[in-house]
């Protein structure tokens, strides 16, 4: 039986998140959501159920030109790492959700690592 693309995405998202929860070690989760137009990144404390920091291409002060580009993803990754450091978070685990680890999703992770967030 062939699953639809949406069902495949949801199954992949749950599989990734469950594996990450198994090796959590009390770290926060850096969650990425990629839509056709924008990119959203959140640093989530799963123990308390709170969002500690967030960054998005919808924010005007980040100066993102092409909202749907790798360059925009790099700016978002650097911004979330900076906001995480302000919140006192040094390391997190990367939750790509159901998205494949390439393109914009990979650019966010690489930029966050370069900015000093340990993923």
TrEMBL record:
Concerning SUPFAM superfamilies, the annotation shows: Translational machinery components
InterPro entries given in the database record: Ribosomal_L18, Ribosomal_uL18_bac-type, Ribosomal_uL18_bac/plant/anim
Which domain of life, per UniProt?
Answer: Bacteria
Any Pfam family the entry gives: Ribosomal_L18p
Cellular component aspect of the GO annotation? cytosolic large ribosomal subunit
Going by the UniProt record, its keywords in alphabetical order are: Ribonucleoprotein, Ribosomal protein, RNA-binding, rRNA-binding
Q: Which GO terms describe its molecular function?
A: 5S rRNA binding; structural constituent of ribosome
Name the GO terms of the biological process aspect: translation
HAMAP family noted in UniProt:
Ribosomal_uL18_B
Say which family it is in. Belongs to the universal ribosomal protein uL18 family.
Q: How does it assemble?
A: Part of the 50S ribosomal subunit; part of the 5S rRNA/L5/L18/L25 subcomplex. Contacts the 5S and 23S rRNAs.
Q: What function does the entry list? A: This is one of the proteins that bind and probably mediate the attachment of the 5S RNA into the large ribosomal subunit, where it forms part of the central protuberance.
Q: What is this protein called?
A: Large ribosomal subunit protein uL18
- Organism of origin is Roseivivax halodurans JCM 10272
Its organism's taxonomic lineage begins at: Bacteria, Pseudomonadati, Pseudomonadota, Alphaproteobacteria, Rhodobacterales
Gene behind this protein: rplR
